[in-house]
Structure formats: C-alpha cells, structure tokens
C-alpha cells in the first residue's frame, strides 16, 4: 500500500508541474488604453498569466501616444513576464508631432526644453510614446525575455528600456523616424541596464534623432557620451543583418556599449555615427560604414 501511495503521489506531482501552455492575447484596438483589445491591456494580461505568452498584433496600426506613463522616465507599463510580441507586419505608431511658431512640423531642436510657458517656441500636437519597458523596475529581472518580431515601429520617442539582467530581441522589424524628444532629448532610443542583453536581427532603422546638445565626459572632453543605442555594464549586444540609415545626434554615437561581448555581423550603417565600446570584446564581421545614403 505504501508503494502504491508513493506512486500516485509521484504521478500527481508530475501532473501539477507539467509545462504551462502559452496564452495568446490579441491587440485589436487602435487606442493603447482600450480594454479589452488595447496594447496596454494585452501587456497586463500577459503579466498576470504564467508562462511565456504571446501578444499578437491583429490590427494594421495601433497608437502609442495615449498609453499610461509610469514613473518619471516616460515609459509605458512594464512587461514583467516573458512574452513574444508578434507584429504580423503591422505598425506601432507614436504620432510624435510638435510645431514651431512658423508652423513647421517637427523642426530641428529640442521641444522638451523650449515648449512650456508663455515664451514657448514649440507647441505639442502629440508627445509620442515609447513601445516597451522590459523587466521589473529597480529589481533583478533575470529570466524575463521579450521578443518583438514582424513589427513596424514609427514616430515614437523611444523604442524602450531593458531592465537589469532582462533580455530583448528585435527581429524582422522596421524602426522608422524615432525622435528622442521627451525629457531632455538625450535619452537613448534603446537603453540596456546592467547585465541586460539586446539582440537585433534582420531589422532596418531609418532616421534616429537625438537632438540634445552633447554631454562630454570631464575626463575625455572630446568624447561624447550620448548614445542612440546604449548599455552601461550591460550584457551582450548582437546586431545581425541590421541596416541603419541616417542616425542624427548632436555629436552622439550610434551605439555606446560597455560590459558584455559585442557581435556585429553582416550589417550596414549609412550616414550614421560610430560606436564607442568599453571593457568588452568586439567582433565586427562582414559589416561596413558608408558616409552617404544608399
């Protein structure tokens, strides 16, 4: 009898600890805050669902400029469970728009530092939005892995932020006209915290703008430390079959990365700033810079 009881106990444990089936949450509404069906709603559902889930974008375009903002860093709701965001060729649009006194839309300069009060030189039509915040704020986010595939991202203020030890993969995507014009216009378009990994595959970036004045390191006054993509004491950076066209910054580097290994493979960079690497190994394979547009 004792052997029989142990046998049933083992079977029960195997049943209870079996694999959790991934849930799929569909984005079907244009408004970020729509419930159900909005992008923010889908993240909330995935956060509350055990296992590695899927967010499927099933609408041609959804907007990021009316998402709720959490904290002071102008980011949307955090993703705190592993999830795959499947774009299905659809678009996340931030609709960032600001207008100067002459009626010019999105002119050069930093609207965030010149748009408040009676002496404002810019008027906001839409403050845009950021797509993603991966991991738990202020905590070790080991084990949280997010992928974005087949999604077009345009007119955002940032793509997003990767928290400590989390992982973000972007593949088969396009990232178009991203303007870091929130806060002080010097926030990286993609930023990785300590130990965070970033992988970008088969993705094209077009026109990345970081309009803030450069901030120079006191110890190295000719080296700017603004980065369009940056990670400090970060994990691994992989850029595989990546094309960057026309990245614009006030002496900002396209990539600043320190910590983990960097691998750049079969990638091309047109009219884009260079890289600054510190305290890491770098493989730059079958890749090149061009000082002209393709």
Could you characterize the architecture of this molecule?
The protein is mostly beta strands. The protein contains 2 helices and 25 strands. The termini are far apart. Helices cover 8% and strands 43% of the residues. The chain has a 15-stranded parallel β-sheet that branches. Strands 8-11-14-18-20-23 form a 6-stranded parallel β-sheet, with no helix packed on it. It has a two-stranded antiparallel ribbon with strand order 6-7.
Count of DSSP strands: 25
**Average pLDDT figure:** 85
Helix content: under 10%
Low-confidence stretches: 1-16
- Which structural class fits the helix and strand makeup? mainly beta
Strand content: 35-45%
Distance between the termini: 77 Å
**DSSP summary: helix tally:** 2
**Could you give a short account of the major beta sheet?**
15 strands, parallel
**Element-level helix/strand string:** HEHEEEEEEEEEEEEEEEEEEEEEEEE
Which short descriptors sum up this protein?
single chain; 294 residues; mainly beta; 6-stranded parallel β-sheet; 2 helices; 43% strand; disordered N terminus
SSE layout:
Layout: H1 2-16, E1 24-27, H2 39-47, E2 53-57, E3 61-63, E4 83-86, E5 91-93, E6 97-100, E7 122-126, E8 130-134, E9 145-149, E10 152-154, E11 158-162, E12 167-171, E13 174-179, E14 190-192, E15 197-210, E16 216-217, E17 220-224, E18 227-234, E19 237-249, E20 253-259, E21 262-265, E22 268-270, E23 275-278, E24 282-285, E25 288-290
Parallel strand pairs: 1-2, 2-4, 3-5, 4-9, 5-10, 8-11, 9-12, 10-13, 11-14, 12-15, 13-15, 14-18, 15-19, 18-20, 19-21, 19-22, 20-23, 21-24, 22-25
Antiparallel strand pairs: 6-7, 16-17
